[in-house]
């Protein structure tokens, strides 16, 4: 894939995830997340798809804003993307509102012709 196409795809995928998270659209988020999801948080813990959606649906993770800045996109063969960049997240975690700036790494994979969010890891900048 050409760099321009790769960047457009990465941006589209990340915007769809941001929209699902900030709008509280659990059904869309369910469709976007891989069954093999690893979601690493900057607080030193991780979620599976099941645990992430359970907490999201219960309001334990309530995202007001997720703003990603993509710095680099790399292909993993023809069926995967690695995205690295920066993210600012405004979220209420377990009832406490936080604004977090982090670097992040995201992995998307084409699963039976549909792009799914496979993996995520953040590290706090401030």
In short:
The chain is α+β, with helices and mostly antiparallel strands and 126 residues long.
Q: What do you see in this structure?
A:
Helix 1 packs antiparallel against helix 2 (26-32). The termini are far apart. A 6-stranded mixed β-sheet has the order 2-1-6-5-4-3. The protein is built from 3 helices and 6 strands; from the N terminus they run H-H-E-E-H-E-E-E-E. The protein has one domain (3-124): Nuclear Transport Factor 2, Chain: A, CATH 3.10.450. It has 126 residues and is an alpha+beta fold. It has helices at 3-23, 26-32, 49-57; strands at 33-40, 46-47, 61-76, 80-93, 96-111, 114-124. It is 29% helix and 53% strand. Strand 5 (96-111) and strand 6 form a beta hairpin.
Structural shape: globular
- The multimeric state of the shown protein is single chain
Total separate domains: 1
By CATH, the architecture is named Roll
State the name of the first-level CATH class. Answer: Alpha Beta
How are the secondary structure elements laid out?
Blueprint: H1 3-23, H2 26-32, E1 33-40, E2 46-47, H3 49-57, E3 61-76, E4 80-93, E5 96-111, E6 114-124
Parallel strand pairs: 1-6
Antiparallel strand pairs: 1-2, 3-4, 4-5, 5-6
Helix pairs in contact: 1-2
Question: What are the key terms here?
Answer:
alpha+beta; 29% helix; 3 helices; 126 residues
């Amino acid at each position: 894939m050409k760099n321009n196409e790769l960047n457009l795809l990465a941006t589209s995928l990340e915007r769809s995830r941001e929209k699902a998270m900030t709008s509280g659209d659990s059904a869309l988020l369910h469709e976007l997340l891989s069954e093999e999801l690893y979601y690493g948080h900057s607080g030193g813990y991780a979620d599976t798809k099941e645990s992430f959606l359970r907490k999201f649906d219960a309001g334990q993770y309530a995202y007001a804003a997720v703003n990603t800045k993509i710095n680099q996109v790399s292909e993993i063969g023809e069926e995967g993307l690695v995205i690295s960049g920066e993210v600012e997240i405004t979220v209420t975690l377990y009832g406490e509102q936080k604004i977090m700036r982090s670097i992040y790494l995201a992995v998307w994979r084409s699963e039976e012709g549909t792009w799914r969010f496979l993996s995520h890891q953040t590290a706090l900048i401030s």
